[in-house]
Specification:
2 copies of one chain form a homodimer. The first copy, chain A, is α/β, with parallel strands linked by helices. Chain A has 7 helices and 13 strands. In chain A, the strands form 2 sheets. In chain A, strands 6, 7, 8, 9, 10, 11, 12 and 13 form an 8-stranded parallel beta sheet that branches. The longest helix of chain A is centred in the C-terminal third of the chain and has 16 residues.
Chain lengths: 247, 247
């Protein structure tokens, strides 16, 4: 769904190249959304983006039951990448996972990395659902890119594959970390990742494995026990506000 | 639901006075929860709190279909108030409102104040549902108090009734405010409120009314359009991290 205070208010992600006068095909889901949900018809205006060519004004060219096409007009906003911020998280139950994924996209995360940990009770995520959620959130929030959702992998494999120059904000449920505002005050912008554990926390072995990484920055998010989705939103907020594009 | 990494793991809010050896009656909903959801029986341990006497160890004394009683043991943690932080918000659709209310409780808000604005499409909130959500979140997150949910009122009335010494973090959707981390760096701890507008923002009249308040601190939450629930969580996070009990 588009935000209501930009005009035109409908903003659609398309995979196709965008340039002046290009004609962009719509798939069945997009045609349905524009025709039946948003009640658009030929000539109506919207915005399109594809994650690389910026945001373009476009008009509906044709709109059928199963497909359609847009006519691209001129560039509305130049492309800009979101900050290089990843979210590493353990899957949680569906309603809260949806919140976590939507909010991570709104808060500008560039990549979502689900991991398996010893205490993870949910062992998989629905990738096509996650993909639909990040696209919808990207359309709604005005970002120029859609976060990448990568396949689930064991925590150890993800940690070992993290580049050494990427700082990892480890949201430590034990409360042993540095208060997050204090920790971030001495850090610099650059590639970052946020690591959120399962409800109940990581196992002692996992905690030791994380602590052994020289790029890990263990932080505490206050005296209350936060749910995983809340922790993710809070941590992404802090990184964006202090080191990201909220400055 | 209780957090899984404190023992005993079940934590119940009760309205009654708590002291060593007190016997506390359970209502039908609590009896059902303990008996049928958590599968407790006589002698099983849990924690209780009432928002004023601290957190106490207790055991199940009796557990029937419609009522029951707890036997209070000794004090587990002394009482502590949450920071004096209020959340002023416009009602939104149900699923997102539930997220906003639950997260505000988790993030330690002391009072939730729903307001009517010109652009508010949802004109009321379900107070008993809100009350149930804040109690459940307080039980889960370990806080000692339950946030107060006050009846909905017009924005102008709420602004006029705010004490002059309470700073108001106004999350300005226009992007005209100071970046939130910068704004908070020059503020001090004390009574605070966070003000979140409706999707689409406040009307020009409402914006002028807010700006005229000497205690208003207009801030921007980054370049993307955040949903109301996301804004509330982000703003509460920033206040707690910088001026509240996350320090």
């Amino acid at each position: 769904m588009a935000s209501s205070h930009t005009a035109p208010s409908i903003r659609l992600y398309v995979p196709h190249d965008l340039s002046a006068a290009a004609v962009v095909p719509l798939d069945e889901k997009q045609a349905h959304y524009l025709k039946n949900v948003m009640r658009l018809g030929p000539g109506d205006a919207l915005l399109v983006f594809n994650g690389r060519d910026g945001e373009w004004r476009a008009t509906v060219d044709a709109l059928g039951r199963r497909d359609g096409a847009l006519q691209v007009g001129d560039l509305a906003r130049a492309h800009i990448d979101e900050p290089d911020l990843w979210l590493v998280f353990t899957p949680i139950k569906k309603a809260r996972l949806d919140v976590l994924i939507e909010k991570a996209a709104e808060l500008g995360a560039a990549r979502l990395i689900p991991v398996l940990s010893a205490h993870t009770s949910v062992r998989d995520i629905n990738e096509s659902r996650a993909q639909a959620l990040v696209i919808e959130a990207a359309e709604q929030c005005g970002r120029m890119t859609v976060p990448e959702v990568v396949p689930i992998a064991p925590l150890s494999a993800v940690l070992d594959a993290l580049p050494e120059d990427r700082r990892l904000l480890f949201c430590d449920e034990s409360g042993a970390g540095t208060p997050v505002a204090t920790a971030l005050a001495s850090e610099a912008p650059g590639p970052w990742a946020v690591l959120i554990g399962p409800e109940g926390g990581f196992s002692p072995d996992e905690r030791a494995m994380i602590a052994a990484k020289p790029f890990a920055v263990p932080v505490a998010l206050g005296p209350r026990v936060l749910r995983a989705d809340t922790s993710a939103i809070a941590a992404l907020t802090m990184v964006q506000a202090h080191l990201g594009d909220w400055r």
